[in-house]
Design goal:
By secondary structure, this protein is α/β, with parallel strands linked by helices. The chain is built from 7 helices and 19 strands. The longest helix is centred in the N-terminal third of the chain and has 33 residues, at 40-72. The chain is globular.
Amino acid sequence: MQGGSIIIPNKRLRKKNGISLIEITHHTKVKKIKVFIIMKAESIFLRFSLILSAILLTLSCAKKNSSSSESSDNFTVSEIAQTSGSDGLSGSFVVPENSISFLLSVFLDNNNSVVFKSLTDPDGIDILSYSSTPNLYLDASGSSGSSVTKYGYANVLIPQSPSFSAKTGKWTFTAYNNDRVKLALRKGVIPLEATIEVQPFITGTTWSAENILDALTILSDIYLENGVKITINNTITITEGEYSSVSPTFTNTTTSALVKQGSSDAVNIFFIEDYSGIGSGILGNAAGMPGSMGEVNSWNGVLVSLSAHASGTVVDAQLLGETAAHEMGHQLGLFHTTEKGGNVFDILSDTPECTISSLDNDSNGILTAEECDLFGGDNLMFWTSWSSTSRSSGKKQDKLSSFQQYVIKHSPIAK
């Protein structure tokens, strides 16, 4: 089942302490050579050698270009044609052999609720039906059974657990009223160490890119320890005042405009000065579980508050790095392992569960990381952070289970 710490429509929030190129350049050195032609045969041989060298160099460059093109072809985004019928809108798509994963997304431009009715795999199993085994009825944001309100955008990720796979063949779907359905598809071979690109942004003028360097290193180290290599691009600074503090709601006009500045093929992390309005005190939040991938839109990124991680102007790099990594996990399809009420858990069978019935030591109905110390409090995707006292003693949230790693390594935007 899916979960969330604090729910604002279409949002999953994490609050503080429970309060919630290599660039390869090919240099060709050309030397001017004076050749005194002694014999006609030598001249013919020289010309032949030069021509042969040019042909070989051309072939070598052609191979490099072909390889690059083939690599980019492993990730594609396309719009799926839909037809209107008695059961609403419907469409289909074919998943080719050697496919790794896909994200099927549905959009409604007026930002009203949008959802799929069904998604049937090549074996005839509707994975959004409560009666199917296994199913994502309660978990996929694109399912009518999900408790998350889907304003303007929803999706289904395959695989969101090892129980599902991008089966080869024809998939069909039905959906309620929408403006378009898009498919982000990844093909190829899964590497032992997947790579994911991260594009950081920072807003406002209180902090600079230098202030988040340590946190980005911590984020990278967390994922590397769990078998995922992170490529971090240079931080982009956004100084326009309207983006300093933004709403945690991704359909908000200003928040939407900010997130749309992100990259289509990276996890976009927006380090904002603070949240506005109802977002006060929130460490960070993601556009979905997962968010959008493969195109620029309002749901292709996560927000992280710098103010919530700072004492004055000094940023807690460890906590900031963990929060950014946590929200990135949501963006890639991970749920909270245990929700604050201790009776809702994620859909992965190998993640630790902390139950309210036996571990709520202070009987306040809310589980802390300390109460769940031996039951997932150290997992990156636990619903809240350690207390400042625990963090000072060295407590960290940097663990991912094998199945959590599986979901991330199979992500459509992983390489």
